[in-house]
Amino acid sequence: MMEHKAFLFDGDRFDVELRPVLEAALSTGDCSPLVDFIRDNLGALTDPYEGEPLEPDWESLLETKDADNYGDFALTKYYDPASDIGLGAGWDVIQDLVADDPAADTSPILGTTVGPDDSPFDPGKMGSYFQSPSQAAASLRRLRDLARESPSDAAADAVRMLEQAVEAGKGLYVTF
Q1: Which domain holds residue 54?
Q2: Rounded to the nearest 5 degrees, what angle is found at the Cα of 82, between the Cα atoms of 63 and 58?
Q3: CA–CA gap between residue 45 and residue 75 (Å, rounded)
Q4: Could you tell me the pTM of the whole model?
Q5: Counting CB atoms within 10 angstroms of each CB, which of 21, 42, 52, 91 has the fewest?
Q6: Domains in the chain: how many in total?
């Protein structure tokens, strides 16, 4: 079963500092600028799985040296991997509720992908999504309406997740 993980995310800084580098690496396969980014920011990065600070031999942790995996490490500059506020296994209840909304272009508990349509950023190969602070606020409004129409523990959990992002002035990074 897929587990929905979500993290408060500094999307504004990501958009300026890393997004162009990551999207270029995903498009071209040239990861050298990503590797340079990691080396230049080593002190601000952590292991995306354990949350521990990256050591100088961080590259030995990679099984596959591609844009997704380098990006996974670089992305930790913008979130804390040890602070998961996601919905766990209960995410699919909300996703089923919102899937039938013809007015929605993105899921309020997911977001949008980053990178080319044919090769979006996805280190775990099960989905990675981003919400800017303004997207998180819009998602919160939508989920509050949904929670009023279809009250459930899952809806309340989703509202709380988005409230945390909005209150912190952050976006979300969602992965499985």
Answers
A1: 5-175
A2: 30
A3: 8
A4: 0.94
A5: 52
A6: 1
